## 1
Amino acid sequence: MPLINTIQQAISRGEGLTVEFKKCKSVLNKDVFESVCAFLNRAGGELLLGVNDNGTIEGVSPDAVQKIKEEFVTSINNPQKINPPVYLSIEEIKIEGKHILYVYIPESSQVHYCKGKIYDRNEDGDLDITNHQNIVANMFLRKQKGHSENEVYIHAEMSDLNPEVIDYARKLATVRQKQHPWENLSDLELLQSAGLYKKDWESGKYGVTLGGILLFGKDATILSVLSHHRTDAILRKENVDRYDDRDFIETNLIHSFDRLIAFGIKHLNDPFYLEKETRISLRDNIMREISSNILIHREYMNAFPAKLIIDNEGLKTENANRPHGYGAINPNQFTPFPKNPTIAKVFREIGRADELGSGVRNLFKYCKAYAKNDPQLVEGDIFKFFLPFTQQVTQQVTQQVTQQVKEKELELLKYAFNPKSRQDLQEFIGIKDREYFRNNYLNAMINHGWLAPTNTSSFTAPNQQYYTTEAGKEILNELLGGHGE
């Protein structure tokens, strides 16, 4: 559903358990973060900035939009404001010529504090329940039982975890962000900071959560807690009845991610692709998203083994799921819902995942460029991903090019049988604007696989030249019966 329709529906429903309006004409309302905290602690919700309590759209002042967005994003990542911090996106849209800022807030698996106080949500708004011990205890119990990652193992000790993996995560986080809070924390303090060492509200004792064991546990510890834990990476192209290669992964989630990535690098091609003027790896971006999805969003209490399969049909994954809907996912109507928010937070801290919901957008973007097909994502008790490899990329291009290739692109393909510079190519087809030529011809033809740079390590090398690839030659043969020389 388009964002404008989502916002209009929220306004028509009015304020309630899952909708909150804030005027925020030129500054953030002081109680915005109390509402964020309450939504996180209850059932999630939608926050609209620029709308009065009665649903009238007043809009955020255009001069204040960027400042408010930056202050909001900074504050929700500040443990002095919201603790534990969260990752939320704030989206801008114009309705009736007025600026509205929209924030979707998912239900969290943790209990959050706003400036040291705990807020809950009811139909009347946000309630401070900090001093109501029974209500707070019930909230902790509800969170703990509602998300399996929060189950506390009171007999698990720090010696049951792998200190090398904790240190590895600490280094990844500090490389990604200078002066990261984890840098000077002890192993126990790091687990507490990440929400992986908690109080069991039934026994009153503290222990490592299931999420903490899965992320940092020794292999023996993990398998003693979840004997069915594994991720199966399979290559099945020649020996379709069994497999050609297999990695049977029964280790912590951080090393599991690395091994899934390595399996994809080993068995998937990585075509040359430019995003603007920067080369990116389509293969690595796709593998990053599907690997993090398998590990972050799995229902670990389900014994169904997670799988990544590369075969002649395409790239597939399956993992047990706790669905919040059923059927195919449409990226234009997709509302993200966290399955294991604490595990997801650790993955974001170490650079293995991005903000909630970005993975689906990235998959559709990069899969289309990689395989000329949209991926299929199906939500259910078993979550399934499938990227069809119906044909070789060069065959796909040849079939599509009869309608898509430009006359000037054909001329460039003939001209670049011997390597030519960007300037030579541009002057050859008579285009004066360098940026227009790069965006509409050079980069596009490289991404199609028709042209390739002679220096692949530095796209902007001073002596960079470009030549017609085998795929480009096939196009010429298909359309011209040869390259015309």
Note: Residues 392-404 have pLDDT under 50 and may be disordered.
## 2
Amino acid sequence: MNPNTLSRRIRQFALAACLVGVASAATAVTEAQFQGAFSHFMQANAGDAGAIDRAAEAFTVLLKTEPVNPVLMAYAGAATAMKATTTWLPWKKMAYAEDGLAQLDKALALLSPDHNATVQNGTPGVLEVKFVAANTFLAVPGFMNRRERGAKLLSDVLASPLLPQAPAAFKAHVKAAATKASAS
């Protein structure tokens, strides 16, 4: 390949990468959109069974906007796993739980040093994803073999040097989860 062709291809690739970046920024989930879905999730997490479907749907819609956002994926996975509590059909319970856990595993796999920064909710993304996964893993039945990993993720969050910069509400939730986990 001659040098001019190589140079032209590099410029085309760079332009394409910039356009993808601009398109991604234009379709990013706003904090207001996130907070709407998050409020449904918190209601569901507090025991409002009616909010579970709303939370799962809201985070699924947001995830379509940003399919590689691990925070959105973690919340979508946790809400999907919660849907297992809304049905009596055993095969649906398992499907919801397995689908949700798979999304959480994928969200954890997507984490990179870039997610040490705040992604959503004023919290470093890595902490939010690990905490949501830990809570979910600790809540599923023992036969799903997630308790040990949930405890490890919660321990990682507690030991993280990023925790002091997290909002007070997040730190309070982490402390409460740690207290609950140590009691059980």
Note: The CA atoms of residues 85 and 112 lie 32 Å apart.
